[in-house]
Amino acid sequence: MTIVPDHGKPRILIINRSYPPGPGATGRIVRDLAEDLTSEFDVTVLAGPLEKRDKSDAKAARNTVDEAATASPQQPRVIRAAGTTLGKGSMLGRIADLTSFLMAVTLRGLCLGRPDIVLVMTDPPMLCLTGALLKFRFGAKLVIHIQDLHPDVGVAIGKLKDSFLTRCISRAFRISYRRADRVWAVSRDMRDELASQGIQTDRLEYVPNWSDGRFIEPLDSQAASEANGSENLRPFRILYSGNIGLTQPLDQLVDAADLLRHRPDIEIVISGDGAGRPALEQRLRGSSSNIRLMHPSAEFSLSEHLSTGDLHFVPLAIGVDRFLMPSKLYAAMASARPVLVTGRAGTELVEIVRSAGLGFVAPPDDAACLARRIEQAADLRETNIAMGQRSRRLFEARFDRPPSTERIRRRLRALISRDETVHEAPPRPKFVQFSGRWTISASATKSNRRLSD
């Protein structure tokens, strides 16, 4: 399938595995960006197949390949590449899903026609290689929006060994970063790390993630608890909401809960799923009664869920703070709640909270200090309200959807202005044999030259 371009707009192809109604935080980021760019760009999103368990959109679940026919001029064109959906239950299923997606998305990208800009996210990380191939094939501008650095994260948390293979993968990724016209990092720490790895600083840009303030509105915590079916008079609640994985160190929070058994007016709620949930469930069996583990619920709005917390916990483990940035910080700010972060001094996460007075900071791996910070927050409820109000104001100014996508729009506009030609798909080069060698015909060369003038 070749997409017919809107001749009045530059064409942008955005590639990411997840896209709503499927799960995944990067999918929501891509949806927000794609929708907000349609007024100026002809936007095509190339995404992965929906998992069978996702029944929120039956029509989309039946259509595992194309949704382009239903796109409107005000909506991005969404194409779903075919692939397996075996899920994360087994390593074999993960490998099959990943391999089939990468093969399908690369083939579809090569068949869609020539874009002016290829924007790839790093879900999965190997998409940077697909982006580099499409840049080579079409001569398009390439932007790589790095959500987390791999395989660096895997090595830092001990999931991967620092081996010859991981070094080769890292080298291949860095080559694709150097070939890109722009590399966007979601934190300044990540940007500095990429610069230290040899990525040209004139191509590196700090482009943080965001949340959508239209869907996360501040609510009174008591009213939100009643809407969620909680008891009317509940304790001061520390909420962790998000993925329970290997990069989210929750052991420190569990240890702090054990130190707070003497405070029945404090409770800790962990809401989420992920690879680390079974181990967490095992540890919590017979543990302190002031900590609760819950599954995410789709019955209540995100605003109601996030507003049940009086204080949001945002951890950042030692060793990974240069490779990722917790996007749950922006959701907490949108809900006008103070945050409790764990991280090293000088990291962007810690500096945002400290400089703007958004909450409390504890060093990683210090459960006693974390427990003291929780008690301090529980005893300063009026102060928490002021911190939450500052969080919302800063969120609206810097991390809400409108200012965030507008900054990206300006960056893309500046990038495309360096090459004013709006590209159409070039004709396939004609190869002829001359004196025993293959060469490109003159007519094809002239045609391609005209497209690049």
From TrEMBL:
Q: Which residues form a coiled coil?
A: none
Q: What CDD domains does its record include?
A: GT4_WbuB-like
Pfam families for the chain = Glyco_trans_1_4, Glyco_trans_4_4
**Per UniProt, which keywords does this protein have?**
Glycosyltransferase, Transferase
Domain Glycosyltransferase subfamily 4-like N-terminal: residue ranges: 25-210
According to the UniProt entry, its GO molecular function terms are: hexosyltransferase activity
InterPro entries in UniProt = Glyco_trans_4-like_N, Glycosyltransferase_grp1
The annotated region (Disordered) lies at: 54-74
According to the UniProt record, what class of enzyme is this? transferase
* Known EC number: 2.4.-.-
This protein is called: Glycosyltransferase EpsD
Source organism per entry reads Stratiformator vulcanicus
